[in-house]
# Entry
Amino acid sequence: MAYVPDTIFALATAPGKAGVAVIRVSGSLVGAAGEVLFGALPEPRIATLKVLRDHEGRRLDQALVLYFPEKNSFTGESVIELHLHGSVAVVNAVLRVLSDIDGLRLAAAGEFTRRALENGCLDLAQVEGLADLIDAETEAQRRQALRVLSGDLGDLAGGWRDKLIRAAALLEATIDFADEEVPVDVTPEVQELLAHVRTELEREITGVETAERIRTGFEVAILGAPNVGKSTLLNALAGREAAITSEYAGTTRDVIEVRMDLNGLPVTLLDTAGLRETEDHVEGIGIERAKQRADAADLRVFLIEKGQHPDFDPRPGDIVRAAKGDMLEDAQDAISGKTGQGVGQLVRDITEQLSDQAARSGIATRERHRVAMNRASDGLNATHAVLALGPDHYEIAAEELRSAIRALDSIVGRVDVENLLDEIFSSFCIGK
# Structure
């Protein structure tokens, strides 16, 4: 007897008071759920106004009902969506009725999306793209997540896979006819296919780190000596009193973080402890943390007073500004968080530097993708080396090629990802 999954339901919109709330039901018993709540299912994909009632026929609400047949829904199963008035009481009443129907249960976190994966409606990379789209806070994050959700990464990996399967087929043909004279040497075509895929893999691998930064946020550290105006500048950039400021050196003891959206890019500004020699143990810890965060930051902004030299040597792309520009006669390349002098130009310079970095990002967005692509690249390098040994070693080359194909398959979830699924779907909200 074939296994039939439970029919699941959940609130698909955020909990709390709202104009509209959406409850989603997915599974083979959506017809039974509809019979209890409003009668016969409406025509597929046509929003129909229905009166919702409980088991005793008492009116619960008036709602728009949408029905999506099996294989034509997000999950691949039969689905109904109930678009209710967004009252907490209404939502709870409808959920209670659904929970009392035999065969229905409340969905686990991410279970709707997991069923979409299991039913072939999404690949694993698209699932990750959906998670990123839900979490997106900036325009760059939205665009990046939408590319992955739309299947761009799966299409890219699929193209590589097709080329490698072609190369493997050529090698297998040579192996199968090893005792006969093969009229055509397949090695040049195989090498050409491998070289093409390797070049694209290497380009995509180099872009993963930047793509991850778009997903999680760039870090910009503000550095300088104590009392140079770092916290005042942070407050000016944030537009609020995010950091304590005073005329006394060493006020900032820990790294203060402020999340911002700069021209669509997610940026975390870091106000760090003033860099100096100190005998204060607590301040010393703050200075050490400042150095560690500054070293790992994507961009550093140095505030330098006249006659000072930064403890860190600026890297290419780092920004250096003269501090306390409101007190300087020569205000060129100077900034003042107190008066706002130069702050707008600093924002433009930070945005330009990070935009240049973002332009080098690829489609792959996660460390998991990078690891899989590195494994595929290693397999292709091994294949190339074995091919150079001649036809007697083609069987080994074919096995190395199959290893590279399996690595690419793991990107979209065909193989070797079962242990990742619980972790991935636990990040989803219930109802998604």
User: Anything to note?
Assistant: The first strand starts at residue 7 and ends at 11.
